[in-house]
Amino acid sequence: MMRVAVEGTSAAPGGGLSFLRGALQALSERADLELDVFVQPGLANQDFGARARTIVAGPFRGLAHRMAWVQCVFPRVARHHDVVFAPGNLAPLRLSSRTVLYVQNAHVVPQMEWRTEYRRSKRRLQRLMARLSIQRSVQVLFVSETLKQWARPYWQANREEPRVARPGVPLALDRLPSHRPGSDVLMVGNLVPHKRIDRAIRGFALLTRAPARAGRLRIAGSQSSPELAATLNACAASAGVADRIDFVGFLGADALAEAYATSGCYLNTSALESLALPALEAMAIGTPVVVPDSAIFREVCGEAGMYFGEGDAAIARQLGDALDSPPDGTTLRRAARERAEAFSWPRFADRVGSAFAAVPSV
């Protein structure tokens, strides 16, 4: 039996928690593992699987405080474990010879999309610690092939090339409802600057200028700050579509599946994604997906995506095509299920379990 210490203090309600829960429940099904999961107090009652024990750390006063805990305190409490699993881009460097690092965030690696969306000085500490973690951890896994290639400057001198372990799709694809074509456009994701929701609003506004164009833009996701929410509301007012946009907040699994099913199409305008699984969920229902023409969306959607380039007019054109002449829903569902074979929790658990087995015994 292998004892694994999971450094999960970076997880928070939303996508991070959804990933951690799915990952650990998949690993917990392996009879050869016992998991001690270190999380912040807000996740104390989460179910991470039958073989997972939750241990509360913190609360922390901020990012620097949490990083200090990972580097100074966590190595002491995890020193008797066989393996450390660090699924939040940051490894405890004193235990790097026993750490399997999982890198899943695009903002901690060097790539041009990041530099166009953030100031050079922003997240500098996170990038530094991610680089050290990638270079020193005994095993490194990436959430996508695109993210791995972005991070090549960090790992190209490593003794062993990192591998990719894609997570499973959050929604159970075999239980999703069928698409019921509507006229609304749906966006899914927390309201943060790099999602470029202002661009979605302007593209939607251009779309609505067509005669008799009905429908609304529904934006499902938690707000990151009142300031950004105010900016988006001002953008909607300036574009003349404030009365046609709904900020519906965070949606649970059933409500999200229903939102996919009743929307005319799914839209993503993000400049910075490490793995855009909501697009795959929408395709699995048979809902057309309108997404940026970038490597990460090509990795997820393949030939089934409807891709747009630069300019708000490009978004409006693809939205119009998706609503007026959508791809066949059956074809989309088939494509999604074929691509979902690479995004399954059992396959993820096998990849991570193999990385655990490759860690030298202490």
CATH architectural designation of the largest domain: 3-Layer(aba) Sandwich
Strand order of the largest sheet: 3-2-1-4-5-6-7
Q: Given the structure, what is the number of helices?
A: 15
Q: Looking at the structure, what is the overall shape?
A: globular
**How much helix, percentage-wise, in residues?**
40-55%
Query: Regions with pLDDT < 50 over 5+ consecutive residues?
Result: none
Distance between the termini: 14 Å
Main beta sheet: 7 strands, parallel
- Summed over residues and divided by their number, the pLDDT gives a mean of 90
Description:
Helix 8 links the parallel strand 8 (185-188) and strand 9 (217-220). The longest helix is centred in the first third of the chain and has 14 residues, at 15-28. The protein has two domains: 2-168 and 344-357, Glycogen Phosphorylase B (Rossmann fold), CATH 3.40.50.2000; 173-340, Glycogen Phosphorylase B (Rossmann fold), CATH 3.40.50.2000. The strands form two sheets. It has a seven-stranded parallel β-sheet with strand order 3-2-1-4-5-6-7, sandwiched between helices. A six-stranded parallel β-sheet has the order 10-9-8-11-12-13, sandwiched between helices. It has helices spanning 15-28, 63-72, 74-77, 112-117, 124-136, 145-150, 152-155, 197-208, 226-239, 253-262, 277-285, 295-301, 312-324, 329-340, 345-357; strands spanning 2-7, 33-39, 52-56, 83-86, 99-103, 139-142, 163-164, 185-188, 217-220, 245-247, 265-267, 289-292, 306-308. The protein is of the alpha/beta class and 362 residues long. Helix 1 (15-28) packs across helix 15 (345-357) and helix 8 packs across helix 13 (312-324).
